[in-house]
Specification:
CATH architecture: 3-Layer(aba) Sandwich
Order of helices and strands: EHEEHEHEEHEEHEEHEEHEHH
Helix content: 25-40%
Structural class: alpha/beta
């Protein structure tokens, strides 16, 4: 079938947004981006210095007339107010603008696995009810409810910890003194930035082909790993000693696995952390 070209607006367009553009077919999608501050961006995206919390943002959305919106805004501080503003208020304003777009097709809301606040040894998936345990998780859940008002025209994507070439925190921690490492050995979950971007593009193609999507996908590599296992593996890859490192007991964190992502037939390029960090280190 012939696929018509769609305009895609990425609100909160940073590293993930640029990666989406990089992996998309530019014959199928024309990209626009909102950012609070203009960064160096690919020539294949038209960037606007727009704060979604300001009233003029709505006018710009309506002038672009996007068929797809990716809402990828992040809080600019760890405060309650910042989470409420950037996830809840910002998405509410976006939702109101969408209601005035005649040709609108789909909203992707980039949420987080922070919504899973429950303490359990069970492996959690999209099929489990999320129980936020802090203000950040609660704000994300409230925003998810706003997105779901669009019914089949919205998909929530709960991303686990994003890592990749421009996200070096774990490598920097691994090569530092183990005295700087966390005091507890929590479970951790992650997704490579490239795989997250490729999956979003994969879903956008389905929208272009008039295929239906699930209302929620958990975007994680499906291999929950103890934090110290990741740090020790990275340290060995860096050819640094791990002989004297004392490993604390496993305490806290959560184990996550996506059921619905696997059912789409999408293949991860980095199916666990060893693939991703090896590519970053070697």
């Amino acid at each position: 079938m012939e696929i018509k070209s769609l305009k895609v607006l990425i609100i909160g367009c940073g590293q993930l947004g640029f990666s989406i553009v990089k992996h998309a077919d530019l014959h199928t999608f024309k990209f626009y981006g909102f950012s609070r501050s203009l960064k160096k961006s690919p020539p294949s995206i038209e960037m606007y210095q727009v704060d979604i919390l300001r009233n003029e943002a709505m006018d710009v959305i309506k002038s672009i007339k996007p068929e797809i919106i990716v809402y990828a805004v992040s809080a600019d501080s760890p405060s309650v107010e910042s989470y409420q503003n950037h996830y809840v208020t910002g998405l509410k304003k976006t939702y109101e603008a969408i209601l005035e777009l005649d040709q609108f097709e789909h909203l992707f809301f980039i949420s987080s696995t922070r919504v899973y606040g429950q303490k359990t040894t069970k492996i959690l998936s999209e099929l489990d009810v999320a129980e936020p345990s802090d203000y950040g998780g609660e704000a994300l859940m409230e925003a998810e409810m706003i997105a779901r008002q669009l019914k089949e025209k919205a998909t929530v994507l709960r991303l686990s910890g994003i890592y990749g070439p421009n996200r070096m925190r774990m490598i920097q921690l691994a090569e530092s003194s183990p005295g700087n490492w966390p005091a507890t050995n929590n479970w951790s979950n992650r997704i490579h930035e490239e795989d997250a971007a490729r999956f979003i593009v994969f879903l956008m193609k389905k929208i272009a082909m008039k295929e239906s999507l699930e209302p929620l996908y958990l975007v994680t590599d499906g291999v929950p790993t103890k934090q110290y296992d990741v740090l020790r593996w990275i340290r060995k890859r860096l050819q640094l000693s791990t002989d004297t490192i004392e490993v604390p007991i496993v305490e806290g964190g959560k184990q996550l696995q996506s059921v619905l992502l696997d059912q789409t037939g999408f293949s991860l390029k980095y199916p666990d952390f060893t693939y991703g960090y090896a590519a970053m280190i070697d």
